[in-house]
Amino acid sequence: SVDGTLIESFASAKSFRPIDAPPAEGSPGDGGPPPAPPADGNGFKPSNPEVDFHGERRTNATHASRTDPEAKLYRKGLGKEAKLSHMGHALSENRHGLVLGVTATEASGTAERTATLEMIDALESKHRRKPKTLGADKGYDSGEFFLDLERRSIEPHVPLVKAPRDPEGVAYRKQKAGVEARQRMKARAGGDGYRLSQKCRKKVEEVFGWLKGVAGMGRSRLVGRWKLQQTLELAAAAYNLVRLRKLAPAG
């Protein structure tokens, strides 16, 4: 099973500035002294003045964080707040829920599927192991992703966001192959293997629940994705040790 989650960046929203904007006076980039914060009517000088973003359109194409340039403004789901984030991914086995691989990537709409293929390939190259099936949530619904798994002789078990189209109405061969892959996924959804895979998939969600709630991985404490990657690997190893202790027979 595989799943992904957002990990909030160490950078604050105030660091998300226009890419072509010059550094502020007194910032580390201009070599001058730090600017004096504005004082209020009582003479109080705040060390962290408020910044008003109302009416300003901020996107990853036009803005970047001055503190953590690799972080991206992203939200996972409608109605949720967009935050500077990275994305963490975990691949687990279904019997005991042990983590087989983790990785940290840029937060984007395709990162989950790309990271999954990389983790599967790394598992095969390092440990000579390859899953027969792969369970995931509806965020992995993509005909191209299903094709990539089938080329690796892996059967995808993923719920479809909406019903697949009729392949006969698709003109382009590449698009038709993806539609046919989603049709095959719809046919698998009625089988016992799919239902069992979706039931076992809940174990990988428990991984992120422990990583965020116990290991403190809800927000990165370091700047730089390679540091986040190392922290994520250590936290996943600790999760496996805790999990193995519970699986060990008593006596």
Explain what this protein looks like in three dimensions.
The relative contact order is 0.16. The two termini are 31 Å apart. With 251 residues, this protein is α+β, with helices and mostly antiparallel strands. It is built from 6 helices and 8 strands; from the N terminus they run ββββββαβαβαααα. Strand 7, helix 2 and strand 8 form a beta-alpha-beta unit. The strands form 3 sheets. Strands 1, 4, 5 and 6 form a 4-stranded antiparallel beta sheet that branches. Strands 2-3 form a two-stranded antiparallel ribbon.
Number of DSSP E strands: 8
Unreliable segments of 5+ consecutive residues: none
Rg is 22 Å
What share of residues are in beta strands?
15-25%
Percent helix: 25-40%
| Element pattern in H and E | EEEEEEHEHEHHHH
Task: Please state the overall shape, judged from the principal axes of the Cα atoms.
Answer: globular
What is the arithmetic mean of pLDDT? 85
Question: Treating each run of at least 4 consecutive H or I residues as one helix, how many helices?
Answer: 6
End-to-end span in angstroms?
A: 31 Å
Main β sheet profile: 4 strands, antiparallel
What structural class results from the helix and strand content?
A: alpha+beta
Task: Give a brief description.
Helix content is 34%, strand content 16%. Strand 5 and strand 6 form a beta hairpin.
Attribute tags:
alpha+beta; two-stranded antiparallel ribbon; 16% strand; globular
Task: Spell out the blueprint of helices and strands.
Elements: E1 2-8, E2 16-18, E3 63-65, E4 72-74, E5 83-92, E6 99-106, H1 111-127, E7 133-135, H2 143-151, E8 155-157, H3 173-188, H4 192-200, H5 202-213, H6 225-247
Parallel strand pairs: 7-8
Antiparallel strand pairs: 1-5, 2-3, 4-5, 5-6
